[in-house]
Design brief:
342 residues, mainly alpha, disordered N terminus, binds zinc ion, membrane, iron ion binding, Fatty_acid_hydroxylase, transmembrane helix
Length: 342
């Protein structure tokens, strides 16, 4: 068996400049199959279970869409919108309704993850899925996040909801959408969101805009759920709101379709910033990697990153982790084990 000193020497020889070295079967001295940087990110296999499942990470979207489709077919939905139209104007439903639904969902989900971060018994239960286990968020961090989250809610969300509700309110005075219309609106908006957010986000990473517009959002390399809207006013409007408001404006969407999509968007942004990749919740790895590694995974879904080739190091590291799960860890990992057990 190799001594700690021998393992340390092998690591040093094959790990110059922070580059990992190793082999596919855990034996010493063979050629490396991974030449990228060594990361502590997502090392526990449990943090990657959710992304490895075929449909697991899409479960929240499927549940939400199924609920909306079924809801639209019920007599209750018909009575509900008849009641709203009898008592409120289109502007009131569009403005107050969208703010109540979106703010309620965002803060409810945010507080749930905040509790998992700050309350010990809850954290002990969920920490097996913490993508960056070394970083545990604190109350002070949340206080700082809240300053910009509340500022953006008041200074961006409210004015945007007001203007859009005056100019082109979500439709409530028409029959409830049929299934095809709900699905078409959802996936069209999703496409706009994927392309629009990717382009705006990547532009904000350019030298011209990064320091003044986007650096704030990257303050936390291990984000928390609420930090999805921890951003400058310019970024919050152009990156978070504009790409999804545009298709609704173009399609004259029904209020119910808009709320379905906004709820999915808010689930996405809170979960992907939560720091936890919990099975059957939305895949949090992609965006957590963006905050950790900074230069990849610009899009919300991943199609644009695949097309543009902005996920290669991410895929390489995930592939390496998968290989290590099967074949054993590299010299670096064995060194840590040796140090623990000496
Ligand atoms: Zn970014
Ligand atoms: Zn982010």
């Amino acid at each position: 068996m190799a001594t700690i000193t021998e393992v340390r020497e092998r690591t040093a020889n094959g790990n110059r400049g922070g580059e990992a070295t190793g082999n596919g079967n855990g034996k010493d001295g063979e050629a490396s199959t991974y030449s990228g940087k060594e990361h502590k990110w997502a090392r526990p296999a449990a943090t990657r279970e959710n992304s490895a499942m075929l449909v697991g990470a899409y479960t929240p979207y499927i549940v939400l869409l199924a609920f909306t489709l079924v809801f639209h077919e019920t007599p209750f939905a018909e009575r509900f919108y008849t009641h709203l139209n009898a008592h409120y104007t289109c502007f009131q439903i569009s403005f107050y309704g969208s703010l109540i639904v979106t703010t309620g969902v965002y803060w409810l989900l945010g507080f749930i993850f905040m509790a998992f971060d700050l309350v010990d018994p809850l954290h002990n239960w969920i920490k097996r899925w913490k993508v960056q286990p070394d970083v545990r968020p604190t109350l002070a961090m949340y206080r700082e996040v809240f300053t910009l989250v509340v500022r953006n809610l008041v200074c961006v969300n409210v004015p945007v909801a007001f203007v859009t509700s005056v100019v082109n309110p979500f439709r409530v005075d028409v029959p409830l959408p049929r299934a095809w219309e709900t699905l078409w609106t959802f996936f069209l908006t999703l496409a706009f969101e994927e392309v629009g957010f990717y382009c705006v986000h990547r532009t904000f990473h350019s030298k011209r805009f990064y320091a003044s517009v986007h650096k704030t959002h990257h303050k936390f390399t291990a984000p928390v759920a609420f930090s999805g809207t921890y951003a400058t006013v310019i970024e919050h409007f152009f990156s978070n709101l504009f790409p999804v408001m545009l298709p609704f404006y173009l399609t004259n969407a029904h209020f119910s379709c808009a709320m379905c999509f906004f709820c999915s968007l808010l689930m996405d942004t809170t979960i992907t910033h939560s720091g936890y990749n919990v099975p059957y919740l939305i895949n949090a790895l992609k965006h957590d990697w963006h905050h950790y590694a900074f230069t990849e995974n610009f899009g919300p879904i991943g199609f644009m990153d695949k097309i543009m080739g902005t996920n290669t190091r991410y895929n390489a590291w995930l592939g390496e982790l998968k290989r290590r799960d099967v074949d054993g860890w590299l010299a670096t990992g064995r060194l840590e084990l040796a140090e623990k057990t000496q």
